[in-house]
Amino acid sequence: MSRGFRHRHTRAENRCSAVLFILLLMLLSSCASTGIRDNVPVQVPVYMTFTKKFVLLPAGCIENDIQVKQATITGSQGSRQLSLRLDARADRSGIVILLTDHSGTGRISYTGGYMSADRDFFIKKIRPEYLLADFQFSCYDICSTAEALEAANLHFTVETVENGEIEIRRIYSYSKCLEEITIRKDSLTITNHFHNYTYTVRYTEE
Predict the structure, then answer these.
(1) 129, 135, 113: which is closest to 35 by C-alpha?
(2) 46-202 — its CATH code?
(3) Per the count of CB atoms within 10 A, which of 5, 16, 100, 159 is most buried?
(4) How confident is the model at residue 4 (pLDDT cuts 50, 70, 90)?
(5) SS3 of the chain: helix, strand, coil, percent, to 5
């Protein structure tokens, strides 16, 4: 009788262990999918589709040093609305982005191929690795960006319209446009069709 009890008890323990193991894997997978590690620098892939990922470019691929002060970001991801203030600095040493709203300020930094971000701020707003990728698609050297995207079996096009006043950059997977970036003198609009988000950055006149 006691052997039967021990046998049933062991089987129950095995089932519990299996369930706990599966839950642990799910938790780790959920944490990993955000790409955020409480300000610990990590290398984060940016998935442009379910299978194709963009590797963030080295900071040295930037075209020109950039300083943005008190710009505004407005947009949406699905039904979620975004309204933030943006301050940013980017040069050949890396990228630092500050986003501010009523809840406080979140910081993203990218240097040496690693990203760090304030997890509590970004977890319910916008994924920082996608913001960094959008920044690079918009401001980094066109040839370097195109080569990195081609390596992921993606295609990058650049078009100018209205006598060069507007530049439109697009990223394709075969014939499907995944993302469109419209660059104007006073604003930048990004629409990601695959991940269903769009936002506009409006610059403050100096």
Answers:
(1) 129
(2) 2.50.20
(3) 100
(4) very low
(5) 30, 40, 30
Angle at 199 between CA 147 and CA 187, to 5 degrees: 80
Q: pTM score > 0.90 for this model?
A: no
Q: Which two tokens stand for residue 127?
A: 């994924």
Query: Which letter does DSSP use for residue 205 in this model?
Result: P
Residue spans of the domains in the chain: they are: 1-34, 46-202
Determine the Cα–Cα distance for residues 78 and 80; give it in Å rounded to an integer.
Answer: 6
In degrees, rounded to 5, the angle at the alpha carbon of residue 188 between the alpha carbons of residues 182 and 192 is 60
What string of DSSP letters covers 19-82? HHHHHHHHHHHHHHHHT--TT--B---EESSSS-EEPPPPGGGBSS-EEEEEEEEEEEETTEEE
Residue 159's identity, in one-letter code, is E
Taking 80 as the threshold, does the pLDDT of residue 6 lie above it? no
